């Protein structure tokens, strides 16, 4: 997806208009989100979000912007970004070049992280790590090398294996004594000020109730733009048009409901805001390359196989003993 051109040309341009809000869709059936993306990509812009983020560069070199820090990056660059801390990584590549996978990303809420620290005494180090992350923490290249296979496996992992890998990744961060803060000690992100941007206000409004029948003219009025100006600004701000953006959020929510409930597909269709089943199926197929029924069947089949494997392992251990 195309990046916002005026956000990529230089460090000054990357931060001149204030950071954009990124809506992080942590799955309701999971504790954290793991994903990867290429370059250019819609999230490659000066942006912020309330969640913590572990960000690992796998390809390209370029300039990194974290808070008031400006530096360089290369493959293996591993950074932990704190809540609402603006950040961006801009790759130095020729115009028109596309990179299939530029980075690996893991995102989680502060509530989840502090809950881990309170439940497991072995993770008490998280309190200090999370506090330091509010300035952004850059880890050594050695830690980046160790983190890469863990994060790559996390992309497809499920069940308890996800938690095993998460703990292993946190162990890599904790063991790295060469980590360093990035933003200056006096830097404080101001999320309430960022949210004053009219389009950030609109994005938050959309995320609160995806079942609402959103009309571009209503959201334009909410932002104070004319409809044509809103359309152009929304494309620059999110990297996609208004309809595509809302459909992406709705399909993401539908996936959560398909995996985490027994509700009928028709009911899910209407709950996430689609007015008819045919459009829902068409949008789902376009985004997930399969219909919703197949998506649910494949996931449940995989989950059942995992449970059976665990049961078989326990049975074999009992026989051995």
Protein architecture, described:
This protein has 321 residues and is an alpha+beta fold. It folds into 2 domains: 5-181, Jelly Rolls (Sandwich); 191-296, Arc Repressor Mutant, subunit A, CATH 1.10.10. It is 49% helix and 16% strand. It is built from 13 helices and 11 strands. It has helices at 11-16, 110-119, 125-132, 141-154, 160-175, 191-194, 198-208, 216-223, 227-238, 242-260, 265-271, 277-288, 292-320, and strands at 20-21, 33-39, 47-48, 52-57, 62-66, 69-73, 78-81, 87-91, 99-108, 137-139, 180-181. The strands form 3 sheets. The protein has a 6-stranded antiparallel β-sheet. Strands 6-5-8 form a 3-stranded antiparallel β-sheet, with no helix packed on it. A two-stranded parallel ribbon has the order 1-3. Strand 5 (62-66) and strand 6 form a beta hairpin. Helix 4 (141-154) runs antiparallel to helix 5 (160-175). 31% of the residues are buried. The model is unreliable at 1-16 and 303-314 (pLDDT under 50).
**Order of H and E elements:** HEEEEEEEEEHHEHHEHHHHHHHH
| CATH class category label of the largest domain | Mainly Beta
- In this structure, how is the largest beta sheet organized? 6 strands, antiparallel
State the CATH superfamily name of the largest domain.
Answer: Jelly Rolls
Strand content: 15-25%
Which fold name is given in CATH as the topology of the largest domain?
Jelly Rolls
Side by side, the strands of the main sheet go: 2-9-4-7-10-11
**Mean pLDDT score:** 84
CATH architecture of the largest domain: Sandwich
Shape: globular
Counting DSSP E segments of at least 2 residues, the number of strands comes to 11
Low-confidence stretches: 1-16, 303-314
Roughly how much helix do the residues carry, as a percent range? 40-55%
End-to-end Cα distance = 55 Å
Q: What Rg do the Cα atoms give? A: 21 Å
């Amino acid at each position: 997806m195309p990046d916002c051109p005026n956000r990529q040309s230089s460090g000054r341009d990357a931060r001149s208009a204030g950071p954009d809000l990124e809506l992080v869709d942590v799955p309701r059936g999971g504790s954290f989100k793991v994903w990867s993306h290429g370059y250019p990509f819609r999230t490659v812009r000066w942006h912020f979000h309330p969640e913590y983020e572990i960000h690992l560069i796998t390809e390209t070199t370029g300039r990194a912007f974290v808070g008031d820090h400006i530096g360089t990056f290369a493959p293996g660059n591993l950074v932990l970004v704190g809540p609402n801390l603006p950040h961006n990584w801009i790759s130095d590549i020729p115009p028109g070049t596309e990179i299939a996978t530029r980075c690996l990303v893991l995102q989680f809420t502060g509530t989840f992280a502090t809950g881990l620290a309170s439940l497991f005494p072995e993770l008490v180090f998280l309190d200090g790590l999370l506090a330091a992350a509010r300035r952004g923490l850059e880890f050594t290249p050695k830690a980046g090398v160790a983190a890469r296979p863990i994060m790559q496996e996390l992309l497809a992992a499920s069940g308890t294996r996800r938690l095993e890998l998460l703990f292993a990744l946190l162990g890599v961060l904790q063991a790295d004594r060469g980590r360093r803060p990035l933003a200056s000690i006096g830097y404080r992100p101001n999320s309430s000020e960022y949210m004053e941007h009219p389009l950030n206000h609109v994005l938050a409004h959309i995320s609160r109730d995806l079942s609402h029948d959103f009309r571009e003219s209503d959201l334009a009025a909410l932002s104070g733009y004319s409809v044509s100006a809103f359309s152009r600004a929304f494309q620059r701000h999110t990297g996609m048009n208004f309809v595509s953006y809302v459909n992406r959020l709705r399909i993401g929510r539908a996936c959560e409901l398909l995996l985490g409930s027994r509700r009928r597909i028709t009911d899910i269709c209407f709950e996430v805001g689609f007015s008819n089943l045919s459009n829902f199926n068409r949008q789902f197929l376009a985004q997930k390359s399969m219909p919703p029924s197949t998506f649910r069947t494949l996931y449940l089949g995989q989950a059942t196989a995992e449970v059976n494997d665990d049961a078989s392992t326990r049975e074999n251990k009992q026989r051995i003993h």
